[in-house]
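Hi U.,

Before I forget, here's the chain from the pilot set. I'm dumping it here mostly so it's searchable later in email.
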Amino acid sequence: MTRFSSRLFAGAAALGLALTLVYGTESAAAENAVHAPAPIVTVPSTAHSETAIFAGGCFWGVQGVFQHVKGVKSAISGFTGGGSDTAHYERVSDGDTGHAESVRVVFDPSQVSYAQLLRVYFSVITDPTELNRQGPDTGTQYRSALFPTNEAQRKVAAAYIDQLRKANVWKAPIVTRIERAQPFYPAEAYHQDYLTLHPDSGYIRYNDLPKVAALKAMYPQLWREHPVLVNASRG
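Structure:
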């Protein structure tokens, strides 16, 4: 076993223990989780693979949640909304590049639909009432935003946000933006699989493990015990 794969194994084991602690005794920490209603508007897909891009705060947690969703083939942390010359973590952190920390999700529509991914996103990943921030992180790079990759996704996203607004799921207005499709730039390697590799991080334990626990509790039919990792096969 290589040094890196050993690290992944140890991280996965630690994540399991940490998630058990959160899920068993601290699930109330996910007080921002909301059981959003099932989307009314869906668009069937006959494709075997589809790509969607989500921005909802620090990409560590966004990636970590989607990696535990059945039907997701890959979830990669990165940047969307700005140019290639500024698609670097230190530069994006300045907050003036137009980029949002985002996650590119490749999924199998026969197992999980874009509408279901949206439901997970609004239920446990993002607080759609926070403008240009999520939790402790502030700045436009942490905005809640969707980047549909085709017209069908745009239609479903717009309809679902309208449905959520009419249902008054949140007391404050929804500010999640639907932005035009733009290039996605993968983040640096050390950001990938961060939640799995660093489950003992204070930031991860407080801000992100409760989101993963909420996914498991609220949507067991979509839960995948072993996350699909970016670096799972890298030696």
